[in-house]
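As a representative case, the lines below give one protein's residues and fold tokens.
***
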Amino acid sequence: MKLAKWTVSAVALAAIGLGSWQLVSYLHNQEKTGGTGHGGTPGQSAAPLPPTPTGQPVRISAVTAYNPLGTGLEHPDTAANAADGKPDTVWTTSKYDSQLGSWKQGTGLIVDLGSVHHVSAVHVEAVGGPTTVELRATAATVTGAAPIEREDLPAYGSALAKDIGTDLNLNPAHALDTRYLLIWLTDLPKDVDGKFQGRIAEIKVTG
């Protein structure tokens, strides 16, 4: 009888175009949950499913300056310029007499997606010259206030992606489900005064 149920399900799902890996996953879940489509014991709510890739733009809820290794935030009043849809408005770091690495490991921006989303790619448009940028992220379970202090920096872990230039594509190699992204600048271009300064015009996130 069980074999018959699987056979009927397989035929029905194949008819609506599910791939073989999807079919096996579906049938396994049906067998495991008794055909309810939900995990857990009867009478209990199923755990929420993680976000799935959409290939669509993810709306950015807020952008804030993040400078845990410095003495204060760098131009927090213009941080929102990095995600306002206007490439001619920018967020800038402070100006440095020498390259950023001689002062501290980096500085950057926290991107708040408003809730946990799947992130497949992040595009950063820098201005003024080649800039080295890393993409970092907190765990998917972090949905409260973003870490802001120096001791909170390790929560973002190591770089999930890194690029150098002005048209930066940061594509994490592994699945990433998170609310907060850290756009972490580690090397800055020189400006016309011979100082080092980072400038970010736009950040775009793809689900």
In short: The chain has two helices and ten strands.
